Request: fold
Amino acid sequence: MTTRRYHHGDLRAALLTRAEQTLRDKGPGALSLRELARDLGVSHAAPSRHFKDKQALLDALALAGFERLGAAMTAALEEAEDSFADRLSAVLRAYVGFAIGNAALLDLMYSVKHDPAASEALIAATNRLATLAAELIVDGQRRGEVRDGPVESIALPVMAALHGFAALVVSGALPPELVEQGLDDTVALVLRGALQTNAV
Reply:
């Protein structure tokens, strides 16, 4: 028999953890507050104290995902060398690593992000990621390493290449033995498109 020891924020955290496991194993269609309550050994009404409905649970999962992705990218930047090439490579690798390890969650993150009813907290989290990418490019331009032009015109192709590569890996279209070399090639191609022609 499951011991019910969830108090205050503990049950919320347990619900999110279990929900992410279900998302990974069975997809979003299998998520149910009632089933999560049963899995955790609490009353079927208990989850409603933290999530009013399934959509609120999905929003919370997406928000947690964006926060973890942002933390991973920020940590990668902090450990990278100073050059734009090194910093961009670190961010790209952090993103692809997250995507490979959290494929179902990433799909959910982007679907919920574009929902007109997305919460302010979720919008703020996605904006922080966009700001991180923009600041990286602006800093590269300031240092003379990135070509001039609107930040968006550089950031969009970077993100498209990055997300596309991650999608290929997650879908299994790219054999595992080719992932590392493919990532190297993608990073190199993205850099050639972003760097000044006279940048080292």
